[in-house]
Design brief:
The chain is an alpha/beta fold. It has one domain: Metal-dependent hydrolases (TIM Barrel). α4 links the parallel β6 and β7. It catalyses: O-phospho-L-tyrosyl-[protein] + H2O = L-tyrosyl-[protein] + phosphate. This is protein-tyrosine-phosphatase.
Length: 248
C-alpha cells in the first residue's frame, strides 16, 4: 500500500432502504398523465417496482384534485386506477394498488364538503388534504371542522413544507390541540426539499400528531433521493414506532 493510499477516502456505504416497517404508502402520484406525477404507464410501473422492492405491501396513490389545475374526478381516478392495476398485474409486480386523492383546500372544495359531494377516502374514512405552501388559507380550520362534521377524518399532507405554518406558532398549537392528523413526507427527512423543511419535520415529529408517512412519489428522482433515507438520523427512530399506515 502506497503512502497516498492511506489518505484515500473510502466510498460511503449507504444501507439499503427498507420500508417493510411502514407496509403501506398512502401518498403518491402514480396514475399516469393526470397530474404532476408519473407521465406514462412505463414510468408508473418502474416506480411501483422500485417501491415494491423496498418492502411495501400496498400503495394508495393520491392524485391531485385542484380546481385551477388538476380537475380530476372520482370517475377519472377510478378509471386510471383500473388501467394501472391491469398493467401491474401484467408486469407481475406483487403489490396491492388502491387510490384516493389529495384535495387542495379552496372555496370549491369547501362547498363540495358542505354539499355532500363525493370525496375519495382511504382507511377509516380518512381524506388527504393540502394547501398552498406560502399563504395560509382563510378557510383552513373551517375546512377541517366541516370535514369532521361530515364524518371524515382529515389528514394534513406534508405540513412541514408549509412556510405559513412554520412561521405561525399559534397555528401549530391550534392544530395540535385539536388533534389534527399530520402526514409527513419521508423525503423531508432527507433534506430533499430544504434543510428548513427537514428541521421542521423533526420538530413536528417531536410534538406529536404525526400519524402517517408517505413517499409523495412523483418521478424517479424522488426515489433516488428516498434511497438516501437510511443516512438520516431519524431513520432508525421512525422504524421503531408503529404508524397508522400499517392499518390501512
Amino acid at each position: 500500500m502506497g503512502l497516498f493510499d492511506l489518505f484515500k477516502r473510502k466510498p460511503e456505504v449507504i444501507e439499503d432502504l427498507d420500508l417493510s416497517w411502514l407496509e403501506i404508502d398512502m401518498h403518491s402520484h402514480l396514475i399516469p398523465g393526470i397530474d404532476d406525477g408519473s407521465k406514462s404507464m412505463e414510468e408508473s410501473l418502474e416506480l411501483i417496482q422500485r417501491l415494491s422492492s423496498y418492502g411495501l405491501k400496498k400503495i394508495i396513490t393520491t392524485p391531485h384534485i385542484m380546481s385551477e389545475y388538476y380537475r380530476n374526478t372520482p370517475e377519472i381516478i377510478r378509471m386510471g386506477l383500473e388501467d394501472l392495476r391491469k398493467a401491474v398485474k401484467k408486469e407481475g409486480i406483487s403489490i396491492e394498488i388502491d387510490a384516493a386523492a389529495e384535495y387542495y383546500m379552496d372555496e370549491i372544495f369547501l362547498d363540495k364538503v358542505k354539499n355532500g359531494g363525493e370525496l375519495l377516502t382511504f382507511g377509516d374514512n380518512h381524506i388527504l388534504v393540502e394547501t398552498g405552501f406560502i399563504n395560509r388559507p382563510q378557510m383552513l380550520l373551517e375546512t377541517f371542522f366541516q370535514l369532521e362534521m361530515a364524518g371524515f377524518k382529515p389528514v394534513f399532507a406534508h405540513p412541514e413544507r408549509y412556510q405559513y405554518l412554520l412561521a405561525d406558532k399559534k397555528l401549530q398549537e391550534d392544530l395540535i390541540e385539536r388533534n389534527t392528523i399530520l402526514q409527513i413526507n419521508l423525503l423531508s427527512l432527507t433534506g430533499f426539499y430544504s434543510k428548513q423543511v427537514k428541521d421542521f419535520a423533526e420538530v413536528l415529529l417531536e410534538k406529536g400528531n404525526v400519524q402517517f408517512f408517505g413517499t409523495d412519489c412523483h418521478n424517479p428522482r424522488y426515489l433516488d433521493m428516498l434511497e438516501t433515507l437510511p443516512k438520516s438520523r431519524n431513520y432508525n427512530r421512525i422504524r421503531e414506532k408503529i404508524w397508522k399506515n400499517s392499518s390501512l
